[in-house]
Design a protein that fits this description.
Blueprint: H1 2-28, H2 40-56, H3 58-68, E1 72-74, H4 91-115, H5 118-139, E2 142-143, E3 158-159, H6 161-178, H7 196-213, H8 219-232, E4 244-246, H9 256-263, E5 268-270, H10 272-280, H11 286-289, E6 330-333, H12 335-347, H13 355-369, H14 374-382, H15 393-404, H16 409-419, H17 444-449, H18 451-461
Antiparallel strand pairs: 1-5, 2-3, 4-6
């Protein structure tokens, strides 16, 4: 008994020492100048900035989707323009979207509920819905219902793309109901300067975007969504001044494309596909989207996917100075896009609006967005090649929307996959046997870190390949 008593004393002393050491370590790791509790305004700013940078930056925009949709071409290191990638190539969108987007926004929602501030919750849900839409648009099946909750789901399941879109629509409806311009104020909003009324329009505009994502598969659900937006009454983004975008500032907070061109000015040029189309239409945006080639002083595009006989850097057009300026905005959803979406909804019979009128307004909104003169707008819209064709609304809307979405690679690529216009030819020396990529492959880390989720997604969706069509892409 005496030996046992001594053993218990020693054990208690060791336990006390361990607890004391842990307490000391905990205290020594506290930053006395930082808050121990996450603040929703800081989390909101961080989530917006990180995800806008990723959405607009090199890995997902210049180095992938803008090449696929042939807004941009590469004249150096052309593997990406030939569709040659590894399973590490598309990890940036995934890692930032979840780690610096979904997790932070989930935390804002928890803090908002605890502080009884539904406006923070509504804004976080809108942003989270945008990020989830961007993720599923590119990869297909993704972690959704269990995402961003590491304490409970270390290895989250992958949800089918259909379920993700429907969940996003439900979240946006919840956000719309929560957002109240007369309610508690928020801070940290670097998109709309804390204007809740603007976020309500943003929410509805995203609902319309997602409704059209599902329209070929679930037309009745799309119609119900659009009818619900109309009944809610807030409306959509209704002016260029209401476009959802992050306005960048001078270095070091400059646009990521501008940052890239500061150090690598001769890797990218405007695609021949785009310049040829703008030239054929006598489109006044040509001088905004591109610069004249130095050697010829003409607008000359570079062919996509060359492996040899690459043009000299002075023989082809650089991106327009607007897009490589430090302060060029990262557009999330523009007024022009919303009008094109409304036109398509009307053409599909999903609303009672006039498709031709909305299409004309969309074209004008895009031109106005870049400061085109009234006279040039009138002349352009009068062109027979620009007139709305009700017999083939996908071509009219698809062609003009592709032009209007210049610079927004992920959105332009998604709309091309959905509408099948414009009709693009694959890269000259493309590596996909005459095909253009129609999805991102999953990050290689998913195969090792979440193998069961990854395998289930591949079994449900199809091969983890650039050529596997996603659920929304029916044609």
């Amino acid at each position: 008994m005496k030996i046992r008593y001594i053993y218990l004393l020693i054990s208690a002393a060791l336990l006390s020492t361990a607890v004391s050491c842990k307490k000391s370590l905990d205290e020594s790791n506290i930053n006395p100048n930082a808050s121990e509790n996450a603040q929703p305004d800081y989390l909101l700013t961080a989530a917006i900035k990180a995800n806008a940078d990723t959405y607009w930056g090199t890995a997902n925009n210049l180095g992938a989707s803008l090449l696929f949709v042939q807004h941009i071409a590469k004249i150096q290191y052309t593997d990406p323009d030939r569709y040659i990638f590894t399973n590490a190539s598309f990890s940036d969108l995934w890692s930032v979207g979840y780690a610096k987007g979904i997790i932070n926004l989930n935390q804002i929602i928890k803090l908002a509920d605890a502080a009884s501030n539904p406006n923070y919750k509504g804004v976080a849900l809108v942003l989270r819905s945008w990020i989830f839409t961007t993720l599923t648009d590119q990869y297909g099946d993704i972690p959704y219902t269990q995402a961003g909750n590491i304490d409970e789901y270390l290895l989250p399941k992958y949800d089918a793309q259909r379920d993700v879109y429907l969940g996003i629509l439900a979240d946006l409806k919840t956000a719309q109901d929560a957002l109240d311009p007369s309610g508690k104020a928020i801070a940290g909003d670097i998109i709309y300067a804390n204007s809740i009324a603007s976020w309500k329009k943003f929410a509805n505009s995203l609902r319309l975007r997602v409704a059209l994502r599902i329209a070929d598969r679930e037309p009745e659900l799309a119609r119900q969504t659009i009818a619900a937006v109309a009944a809610e009454g807030t409306g959509y983004i209704s002016a260029n001044s209401e476009t959802a975008q992050l306005a960048y500032k001078a270095s070091p907070n400059q646009n990521p494309i501008s940052n890239l061109f500061d150090t690598r000015p001769d890797e990218y040029r405007v695609s021949k596909t785009l310049i040829d189309q703008l030239t054929a239409l006598n489109d006044p945006r040509l001088a905004i989207y591109a610069q004249k080639a130095v050697a010829t002083q003409t607008y000359t595009g570079a062919a996509n996917g060359l492996s040899a006989n690459l043009p000299g850097k002075d023989q082809v057009s650089k991106l327009g100075t607007y897009f490589i300026a430090p302060t060029a905005p990262a557009v999330i959803i523009s007024y022009a896009e919303v009008l094109f979406d409304r036109a398509e909804a009307a053409a599909r019979g999903l609303s009672g609006e006039n498709a031709a009128t909305l299409y004309s307004q969309a074209v004008e909104a895009s031109l106005t967005q870049y400061g085109v003169s009234t006279a040039d707008i009138t002349a352009y819209k009068a062109s027979a090649a620009v007139q709305y064709n009700s017999a083939n609304y996908k071509k009219s809307i698809g062609d003009q929307k592709w032009i209007a979405l210049y610079g927004q690679g992920l959105e332009a690529w998604t709309e091309w996959r959905r509408l099948d216009y414009p009709q693009l030819s694959p890269a000259v020396a493309g590596a996909l046997n005459g095909a253009i990529p129609v999805r991102y492959i999953y990050p290689g880390t998913e195969q090792s870190l979440n193998p069961n989720g990854y395998k289930a997604a591949v079994a449900h969706q199809g091969a983890d390949a650039l050529t596997t069509k996603l659920w929304f892409d029916v044609n």
